[in-house]
Amino acid sequence: MDITIKVLKILLENPHKRLSGQYISEKLGVSRNAVWKAVEILRKEGYQIDGVTNKGYSLKKIPTDINSYYLELSLGSFWQRVIVEKEVESTNKLMKELGNSLPDKSVLIASRQWGGIGRLGRSWSSPEGGLWFSLLLKPQLPMEELPLITLTMAAAMWEGLYNHLGIEVKIKWPNDIIWDGKKLAGILTGVKGDMDKVDYLIVGIGINVNNPIHPELKGIGLSLKDVVKKEVNLNYLLIEILNCIQKYYQLFLTDKREDILIINKEQSTLLGKRIIISSFKGKEEGFAKDIGNDGSLIIEDDNKQIRKVFSGDVSLKEWYKNSNTN
């Protein structure tokens, strides 16, 4: 473990206490000068560390922006590899390039994306202040079980946001997190494999947190900062969400998926409402009846025929009529 991380660990384990450089150096078996250098590195990273001569150091505040030192100390062993980048074109694109060389359950986080992509190839505005990350997962599953993975992530995000901020968001099947009719977050899942097995999944997650919303998107999107009326620490929020993803992904893998479906149904923005589905076949209307155990949206068309939808862009008919987007 890097000396800087070791110093941070001691400071985090002793909140509100002032620890002398001598105490830390003896605890770690390093020189006092090495401790001082580590503290200076942490300060440059954005940590507020109070230092008083002959009295020692006290950690007052961790950075609001994503910090690799804090994540390394705070995430459990479930996540095998965590990569933090300042800026990338797209975390999904980079993860795809690295997919064969990284272990199962890897996480790639970027402070900013300059070419983020959402569903149907739409651009995703990803300035600094948001949470933009991708997961690499290698489940031993057949391809037909994958539609439920996006709902698994949606359930985890719902719980993570509730646990950390006390807000109850809504889920727009299959991949959008909604507050007051506006988009807070999105999930984009890609897969490499064949019908017999999955080589790996890449799950991209984008959450508007402290970042400004592009003027053209203010009618349909907002940030968590706007909801809770304060700046949100990205490290705390990411750790909570990753912990919830770990929980729900393990339920998914062990075929204990009731809670995943319950959250998606109870928090759905679509069920019981008339919707419009856009796909390569065009647009069609229907009535959203239920979410199937396989992750499909079950709809009833105007001829009272029931069928399953596994993909497509879904909008509420009422919302669609008043929007220029679909």
Automatic annotation (TrEMBL):
<keyword id="KW-0238">DNA-binding</keyword>
<comment type="similarity">
    <text>Belongs to the biotin--protein ligase family.</text>
</comment>
<dbReference type="InterPro" id="IPR036390">
    <property type="entry name" value="WH_DNA-bd_sf"/>
</dbReference>
<dbReference type="GO" id="GO:0006355">
    <property type="term" value="P:regulation of DNA-templated transcription"/>
</dbReference>
<keyword id="KW-0547">Nucleotide-binding</keyword>
<feature type="binding site">
    <location>
        <position position="183"/>
    </location>
    <ligand>
        <name>biotin</name>
    </ligand>
</feature>
<dbReference type="InterPro" id="IPR008988">
    <property type="entry name" value="Transcriptional_repressor_C"/>
</dbReference>
<keyword id="KW-0436">Ligase</keyword>
<dbReference type="InterPro" id="IPR004408">
    <property type="entry name" value="Biotin_CoA_COase_ligase"/>
</dbReference>
<dbReference type="InterPro" id="IPR030855">
    <property type="entry name" value="Bifunct_BirA"/>
</dbReference>
<dbReference type="GO" id="GO:0003677">
    <property type="term" value="F:DNA binding"/>
</dbReference>
<keyword id="KW-0804">Transcription</keyword>
<protein>
    <recommendedName>
        <fullName>Bifunctional ligase/repressor BirA</fullName>
        <ecNumber>6.3.4.15</ecNumber>
    </recommendedName>
</protein>
<feature type="domain" description="BPL/LPL catalytic">
    <location>
        <begin position="67"/>
        <end position="253"/>
    </location>
</feature>
<dbReference type="InterPro" id="IPR013196">
    <property type="entry name" value="HTH_11"/>
</dbReference>
<dbReference type="GO" id="GO:0005524">
    <property type="term" value="F:ATP binding"/>
</dbReference>
<dbReference type="Pfam" id="PF03099">
    <property type="entry name" value="BPL_LplA_LipB"/>
</dbReference>
<dbReference type="InterPro" id="IPR004143">
    <property type="entry name" value="BPL_LPL_catalytic"/>
</dbReference>
<dbReference type="GO" id="GO:0005737">
    <property type="term" value="C:cytoplasm"/>
</dbReference>
<keyword id="KW-0678">Repressor</keyword>
<dbReference type="InterPro" id="IPR045864">
    <property type="entry name" value="aa-tRNA-synth_II/BPL/LPL"/>
</dbReference>
<dbReference type="GO" id="GO:0009249">
    <property type="term" value="P:protein lipoylation"/>
</dbReference>
<keyword id="KW-0067">ATP-binding</keyword>
<feature type="binding site">
    <location>
        <begin position="90"/>
        <end position="92"/>
    </location>
    <ligand>
        <name>biotin</name>
    </ligand>
</feature>
<dbReference type="Pfam" id="PF02237">
    <property type="entry name" value="BPL_C"/>
</dbReference>
<feature type="binding site">
    <location>
        <position position="113"/>
    </location>
    <ligand>
        <name>biotin</name>
    </ligand>
</feature>
<dbReference type="InterPro" id="IPR036388">
    <property type="entry name" value="WH-like_DNA-bd_sf"/>
</dbReference>
<keyword id="KW-0805">Transcription regulation</keyword>
<dbReference type="InterPro" id="IPR003142">
    <property type="entry name" value="BPL_C"/>
</dbReference>
<dbReference type="GO" id="GO:0004077">
    <property type="term" value="F:biotin--[biotin carboxyl-carrier protein] ligase activity"/>
</dbReference>
<comment type="function">
    <text>Acts both as a biotin--[acetyl-CoA-carboxylase] ligase and a repressor.</text>
</comment>
<feature type="DNA-binding region" description="H-T-H motif">
    <location>
        <begin position="21"/>
        <end position="40"/>
    </location>
</feature>
<dbReference type="GO" id="GO:0016740">
    <property type="term" value="F:transferase activity"/>
</dbReference>
<keyword id="KW-0092">Biotin</keyword>
<dbReference type="Pfam" id="PF08279">
    <property type="entry name" value="HTH_11"/>
</dbReference>
